[in-house]
């Protein structure tokens, strides 16, 4: 069985740190907490789980802080989490099983990262991250903000999910770091251009965000997942600016780079539904519904677009066409993911008598 050091950087996480540590502590050999300047009870919470608490002077560089935390580890492998992350019960069992069976020649284990869930517990947004890495490889974090762990060698993709359960978010922290760097005359890397554009979008600075997404794409040095996300997020920006034509063009732009993804299909379906072009809308929603569901993607994945959403919209399309049987079937498929959704319950009560009425008419012609 391999040994594991948990390495975390924290600041003012008194509300979430205990929840995180209690979900993983029984399976860890060593917990290393690096505090970057807490002024609340974060240290006191950490002391309930470990004596290995260190301080790091914050220099607006997440990678530097994480690399310092990694340098303190002594176990075979290093696991990293943020204070508002949690391993749920099912994933705790999976993690324990992994430690018993992990081949020591494996250099990195990736895990799905659940960024958000709906009220029914369905994953809404997921990405995949290198989460458990061999200490002897001395992998390094790269990037002062939106940092990433640079790994190589033998990697396996596990189904152990880490859930991000944030209670609050410092909305200005990252954009402030970027703008300090820009003011200092630092040239942003392609990756930084993408993440700065994301920050601008999140701050409703839509025209600026579009500009930086285009700058990112123009570099030609784009990871495919970030490239597709840029097209989608530009479409979001144009939607907020009420520019339908450029929203459509940004959506279609994604089709230049890869086969249609479910979120692109749903956006196109919605466009044609708004135009009352039901044939085109049905095509794109059915395409979305038929695409395989996966948690293997390293880019952001909106699981709504490959699960319940296209079926709910197909219910709308077929209802407008008077095909109540198909509308009902798609509503029921959506209901498998959202069993108490009020829209689905309403559709069921609305469609059921229409189906019965149609069946009665058919019988009368026999």
Automatic annotation (TrEMBL):
InterPro entries: Glyco_trans_2-like (IPR001173), Nucleotide-diphossugar_trans (IPR029044), TPR-like_helical_dom_sf (IPR011990), TPR_rpt (IPR019734). Residues 5-147 form the Glycosyltransferase 2-like domain. It comes from Paenibacillus plantiphilus. Gene3D superfamilies: Spore Coat Polysaccharide Biosynthesis Protein SpsA, Chain A, Tetratricopeptide repeat domain. SMART domains: TPR (SM00028). This is Glycosyltransferase 2-like domain-containing protein.
């Amino acid at each position: 069985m391999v040994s594991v050091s948990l390495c975390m950087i924290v600041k003012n996480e008194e509300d979430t740190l205990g929840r995180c540590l209690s979900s993983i502590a029984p399976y860890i050999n060593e917990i290393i907490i690096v505090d970057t300047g807490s002024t609340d009870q974060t240290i006191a919470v950490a002391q309930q789980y470990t004596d290995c608490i260190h301080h790091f002077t914050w220099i607006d560089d997440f990678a530097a802080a994480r690399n310092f935390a990694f340098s303190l580890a002594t176990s075979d492998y290093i696991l990293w989490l943020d204070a508002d992350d949690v391993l749920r019960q099912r994933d705790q069992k999976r993690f324990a099983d992994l430690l018993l069976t992990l081949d020591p020649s494996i250099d990195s284990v990736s895990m799905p990262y659940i960024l958000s869930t709906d009220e029914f517990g369905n994953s809404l947004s997921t990405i995949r991250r290198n989460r458990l890495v061999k200490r002897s490889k001395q992998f390094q974090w790269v990037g002062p903000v939106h940092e990433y762990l640079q790994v190589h060698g033998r990697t396996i993709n596990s189904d152990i999910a880490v859930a991000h359960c944030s209670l609050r978010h410092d909305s200005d922290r990252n954009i402030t770091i970027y703008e300090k760097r820009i003011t200092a005359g630092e040239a942003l890397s392609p990756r930084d251009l993408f993440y700065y554009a994301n920050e601008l979008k999140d701050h409703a600075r839509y025209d600026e965000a579009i500009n930086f997404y285009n700058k990112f794409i123009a570099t030609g040095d784009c990871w495919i997942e970030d490239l597709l996300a840029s097209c989608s997020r530009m479409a979001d920006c144009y939607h907020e600016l009420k520019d339908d034509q450029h929203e459509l063009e940004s959506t279609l732009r994604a089709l230049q780079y890869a086969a249609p993804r479910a979120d692109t299909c749903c956006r196109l379906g919605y466009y044609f539904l708004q135009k009352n072009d039901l044939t085109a809308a049905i095509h794109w929603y059915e395409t979305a519904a038929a695409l395989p569901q996966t948690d293997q993607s390293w880019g952001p994945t909106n699981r709504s677009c490959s699960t319940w959403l296209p079926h709910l919209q197909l219910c709308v399309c077929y209802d407008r066409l008077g095909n109540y049987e198909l509308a009902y079937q798609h509503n029921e498929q959506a209901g498998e993911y959202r069993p108490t959704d009020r829209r689905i319950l309403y559709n069921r009560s609305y469609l059921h008598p229409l189906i019965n009425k149609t069946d009665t008419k058919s019988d009368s012609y026999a």
